[in-house]
Structures are given as C-alpha cells and as structure tokens.
Amino acid sequence: MIRFNEQGKIVEFEVMVRPFSALQALGEQMGQRLGAYLAASKA
Asked: Which top-rank group of organisms is this from (predicted)?
C-alpha cells in the first residue's frame, strides 16, 4: 500500500515480503541505501 500527501509525495509505503530471509536482505539493502542518502543530504 502506498499513501501520498497533498503534494503527491509518498508518506507511507507498506510491503509484504516472504520468506524471512528475503525480509532480512531487503532490510539490509534499505539500510545501506538510506544511510548513503542521509549522509549525502547532510553534506
């Protein structure tokens, strides 16, 4: 499920993932990508 605000930006994003190992891999990748994004946005 995806929910958008009035400006059309995503404010909520829900994903179902199976099996558990796929969820772990997804979490690891998201952490790496978000970490890089946050570091770049602070620079």
From this structure: Bacteria
